[in-house]
Amino acid sequence: MKSRIVFFYAGIVLSALALAGYAYQDAGGRLNVKVDEEYKVCNCETCDCLTVSSVAGKCGCGNDLVTAKVTKVEKNTAYFKAAAWSKDRPFNMVGKYVCACGPTCSCKTISQKPGKCGCGSDLKMVGKESQ
Length: 131
Ligand SMILES: [Zn+2]
Ligand SMILES: [Zn+2]
Fold this sequence. Notes:
By secondary structure, the protein is α+β, with helices and mostly antiparallel strands. It is built from 1 helix and 8 strands. It folds into 2 domains: 1-28; 31-125, no CATH class. It has one helix at residues 2-25, and strands at residues 38-41, 52-53, 66-74, 77-82, 89-92, 97-99, 110-111, 123-125. Strand 4 (77-82) and strand 5 form a beta hairpin. The chain starts with a helix and ends in a 6-residue tail after the last strand. It binds zinc ion (2 copies). One zinc ion (ZN) binds at residues 42, 44, 47, 49, 51, 59-61, 63.
């Protein structure tokens, strides 16, 4: 009976490790931000594109990005506050879409929806090679 419980917990640990490994593999779309850094972010109230970039541009919805400051970082969520916003808004720091210009690109654009980065390239889906 006791050994069954041990196996049960071992199973949980193993699947947690597998999940962590998966998340690590998929970390290509991750943007590391620090409190007080300024980024250009999606300004749409209802949009879920959550575009974050270090250069000016438009989000997938076609609206201009606005300058916002990082107020708080929690795991994969960063809170941004723009001058015109009454309170800070949470942004997912793991983008489903990222700038396709490669690691040398300085725009660092991530988004939850397809669109263009500040350099004018189409964002690519994380996990897919650009062609
Ligand atoms: Zn948007
Ligand atoms: Zn770019």
